[in-house]
Amino acid sequence: MQSIKNFLSTKLAPKKKQQEQVQVQEQVQEQVQEQVQEQVQEQVQEQVQEQVQVQVQEQVQVQVQEQVQEQVQEQVQEQVQVQEQDSWPDPVEIKKHHTIVDLFTKEYLPPCIQEFVFSTAKRLNNAPAEFVAVSCLVSAASLIGGSAVIQPKREDTAWILIPTLWGALVGGPSVMKTPAMEAGVSLIPKIDKTENDVKRTIVVNDVTPESLAINLASNPNGIMLSRDELAGWLINLDKEERAAERAFYLQAFNGSGSFVQDRVSRDRIEVEPLIVSVLGGIQPSLLMPLLTARNEGRSNDGLFERMQLMVFPDYKPEYVDIAPDQVVQTKTKSIFSFLSTFSENNHNKRFTFNNEAHDLWREYAQKTICRAHSSEDGLIQGLLGKYPALCAKLALIFHLMSQTDHDNVIFIIDAEHVRRSILWMSLLESHYQRLMHFTSNVNIDTATNALIEKLAHLPETFNKRDLARKCWKNLGTEKDREIALERLVEHGYLRVSKVSPNNRLKTTYTIHPSFRA
Q1: Whole-number pLDDT of residue 3
Q2: pLDDT number for residue 192
Q3: Which of 339, 421, 469, 498 could be cross-linked to 395 through a Cys-Cys bond (beta carbons 3.0 to 4.6 Å apart)?
Q4: Contact 435, 287 (CB under 8 A)
């Protein structure tokens, strides 16, 4: 047994050793592999970290470069803006389209009312003296009415004129139109006496032809229609259903025609002739629909042309606090009191020119008729065609206002009054031209101002399509936009450039640095 054990141990011992060696080798291999893996992982981590660092560094460098570029660009832009600011002169102020009117001075008025007109205008915070003057002249005309007529020609005794006047004070709100009107109207004496139990009323306001006829019945020499705002009255007369009323006023201006009214509730009213002077204020913008209809041939029967004393003066307001000149006030009121008395005691008294006055008026009338005939503008023809008669009317009014001996009125008119009337013709024509120019260019000013206000809402450089897409008020039509762009380029608010990308011409506009967002 012992020998068998020995034999087995001798045989099995090498195998066991061998197994042990294998186990050792495996353990060693495992350890080596673990060490190698650890080394590899460390190397990989190191490489990853290096790559990440490189990427981070690259990103940092990119960011730094971008920041540097941005700063450089900002500095460049600032320098460019400074250079542009230096190269862009200040834009020129865009003024409204106003034509120049004749300067109104004391020589346009008889000496007897010069101080009243100009001192009153000054006292009304430097209101336009033209407003006060027109108010005084229309008020005087309403008092004279049919009591006096002027025969301008020597031989033609059939052509006589009743001195009716229609006056309009044109201006925006707060230009002292109403106080200036009241200054003249207040000179008309209050008539306390009554005729046939009907109180005489020279000045009326908003009335119908029927009620106006009642007033005319008690004032055979005429009355005055006074309205703070003429636009409503004129617009109503423009309506088709008011055609009869429009015809009534056309006749009343000429001092002709008649009006008859039969009512069961009252006595028959019959007025002949119709004599009505008109005075009121109006804003220029409210004249637009009336002038549009007139320019298009509608309502072109001469009603607007009868608004002959239409003035649209400059206004430079200032605060003024002075007392009325009582001496001047009393003197002026006495003139209007005389006109009222003359009207009550006379009817159709005929006045004529002396030789010098007639020659002056005839020369003016001939030149004006030739101007009207040679003009291609039908509206100007209508205006000028009525000026010789207006010149004669004003001469008559100036003459009567200048009478010093109220008990012995002179019926022959001197040349000085005709000269003064001719001055008025030039003055009134200049105001008419201003009004026509204003109404034809009001859209231009509106569009231009609208674009200036919106420049900050446009890109620094834009084109016409960019502007059209905004759909802004007062810039809705291509014409309005074109006009506004042209005016802003002309006055230095914009610079225009034309480029040809892809052989296609493109117009762009660059905004003045002071008006950019």
Answers
A1: 65
A2: 53
A3: 421
A4: yes
286 neighbors 143 (Cβ within 8 angstroms): no
CA nearest to 213, candidates 227, 233, 228, 198: 198
Task: Give the whole-angstrom CA distance, residue 449 versus residue 460.
Answer: 18
Phi-psi region of 302 (alpha: psi -120 to 50; beta: other; left: phi over 0): left
Q: Which residues pair with 280 in a beta bridge?
A: 168, 227
Q: What pLDDT band is residue 12 in, cutting at 50, 70 and 90?
A: low
| 53 part of a folded domain | yes
Rounded Cα–Cα distance for residues 454 and 116 (Å): 47
Which residues span the domain enclosing 428? 107-443
Among 293, 306, 308, 316, CA closest to 176: 316
Q: What is the pLDDT of residues 333-354, one digit of tens each?
A: 999 999 999 999 999 999 999 9
- The total domain count for the chain is 3
> What's the one-letter identity of residue 160?
I
Q: How far apart are CA 212 and CA 218, in angstroms?
A: 10
Average pLDDT, integer, range 232-239: 85
**Residues pairing with 311 in the sheet:** 169
Q: How far is CA 512 from CA 112, 266, 466, 492, in A?
A: 56, 73, 17, 7
User: Strand pairing partners for 282?
Assistant: 170
Residue 279: helix, strand or coil by DSSP? Answer: strand
**Cα(371)–Cα(386) distance, rounded to whole angstroms?**
12
Cα–Cα nearest to 493, from 508, 516, 512, 514: 512
Domain boundary among 410, 443, 476: 443
Q: Is the peptide bond before 273 cis (omega within 30 degrees of 0)?
A: yes
Are 187 and 120 members of one domain?
Answer: yes
Residue ending a domain, among 55, 87, 119, is 87
Beta sheet of 203-204, edge-to-edge order = 203-204, 223-229, 276-282, 166-170, 309-311
Whether residue 501 sits in one domain with residue 399: no
For 95-142, how does the pLDDT look when each residue is reduced to its tens digit (9 = 90+)? 766 689 999 999 999 999 999 999 999 999 999 999 999 999 999 999
Side chain identity at residue 363, one-letter code: E
SS3 5: helix
Percent of the chain with pLDDT over 90: 51
pLDDT(197) > 50: no
24 and 130 in a common domain: no
The per-residue pLDDT for range 304-336, each reduced to its tens digit, is: 889 999 999 999 999 999 999 999 999 999 999
